[in-house]
3-isopropylmalate dehydrogenase (Ruixingdingia sedimenti), 368 residues
Amino acid sequence: MANPSLLILSGDGIGPEVMAEVKKVIAWLDAKRGITFDVSEDLVGGCAYDRHGTPLHDDTMAKAQAVDAVLLGAVGGPKYDSLDFSVKPERGLLRLRKEMDLYANLRPAQCFDALADFSSLKKEVVAGLDIMIVRELTSGVYFGEPRGIFTEGNERVGINTQRYTESEIARVARSAFELARRRGNKVCSMEKANVMESGILWRQVVQEVHDKEYPDVQLSHMYADAGAMQLTRNPKQFDVIVTDNLFGDLLSDLAAMLTGSLGMLPSASLGAPMENGRPKALYEPVHGSAPDIAGQGKANPIACILSFAMALRYSFDLGDEATRLEKAVEKVLADGVRTPDLMGPAGGTPVNTAQMGDAIVAALDASL
Ligand code: NAI
Ligand code: MG
């Protein structure tokens, strides 16, 4: 069987710095676990604009469509701020998401015990937290028609339309149920079925997909406002949460902040299953290119490394290796190894980007 394939797009700013540490993990899997990826690399964002005059070359787009998973660093930087909108670095990322039709955005909120003090919530509420928010990304009120600012009589009216088709709901529900089977086997669907027709349909369709295709997964429904309360009161009751684009935007940011530093947050965007059964997939840290610290060895590579762990679990069915990698990160944090962003009042051993990567690889070695 062919090796699993991975396209690495490191991008700009700290992107290449954090990606260098992921490459150490990829090399380790090859050398120590006999897991070999066919890795190709290409440009996205500002660096692609510098080379080709476009933030995403057609050849790169074609490669992204052909591989099993894309791993992206970050794009953008002050150097590109004055560029025309059509060639801004972010357009490269948007084109990837759009043409790969990545409709399920996965944002985990995972709290490592050693960093529980960084949370705005009480330590016991967040310690050991591990939940996944699945946000519908390509439809809903951000895209629905009619939209615009109109004049009615003698005043202006702003209009956006929340619109979901049955198939749009069903496909993101399937993504959530598939994920739940690889995790805690529990899905909570959030909408506002009490006041919105699109919410009523959402609830019906999620229930139907569940009953027909995923009866083994535990499903519950919650109004999104109650969900926001429960996320701050007792987040550990959840495993996978599936919700629409607007509520998911809010709830995933809320959940992310339960866990502390931006340098720790991974994400994935998934699309339809390909012929080999794997979903179209793009994995990337939540953070940007961090121009304020780029080139100084200060970047925390953990968000990017945990994004790769998600790829192992959700694209390559290597859940055990993903867990091993997450445990290695946990161990290094418990040992007090700290990039500058993680240095709290409790102190720790200060390290740079490369040293953090080395410590994680050493912890992987120790796990054998
Ligand atoms: P940012 O996420 O790059 O940085 C925000 C703050 O967090 C900065 O102080 C930065 O130093 C810090 N930070 C971010 N990642 C870190 C890490 N791994 N380790 C330690 N500290 C980290 O967001 P900002 O400053 O708003 O945007 C900078 C550039 O990145 C802009 O050009 C923006 O358009 C782009 N951007 C790109 C994204 C992407 O590629 N997906 C997402 C967000 C912003
Ligand atoms: Mg947001």
Residues 15-33 form the longest helix (19 residues). The first strand starts at residue 5 and ends at 11. Residues 194 and 200 are 7 Å apart (CA to CA).
